[in-house]
Predict the 3D structure of the following.
Amino acid sequence: MGQADHALDEDEVALLALLPAGGAPADSNEIRGRLGWEAEHYASACARLEERGYIVAGQGQSKTVGRDLTAVPPEFRTACGRPGSDVTVRQVPVTVPHALCDLTDVILSYPGRGGAAVPDSLGSGVWNSKGFRVQVDAHTQDVTVTVSGAEGNA
């Protein structure tokens, strides 16, 4: 099942909220303790998120867990959870899953088309006269960037 095919449940949202935005690994025991969950509850939520490609869980004694940012295009990764960051989009159309990468108030641009900050309102969008458009999905908060028309003549 793909990421776009599944709305996250309350547990999945809570777990993802505690993971570093940039994908760095976090200690599983620390995360589970902060959530106040029993081991089975935590393992179930991790398994669902890992199956859907949202997280990568480590193995062994020093078990870690982190966001799986492979679904996020490389140019966006350093801006995840960092309002005010600048990203030059390399390919359109592109959709960035909010559950993995919060782009709220990140400034996006596309060569020759200008840019805009990602709005913080669900279901909202921003576009300009050069055909650059940023749309925030009302349900998932995923961010989609598109351009339309010929460069300089949208």
User: Anything to note?
Assistant: The first helix runs from residue 10 to 17. The chain has a mean pLDDT of 88.
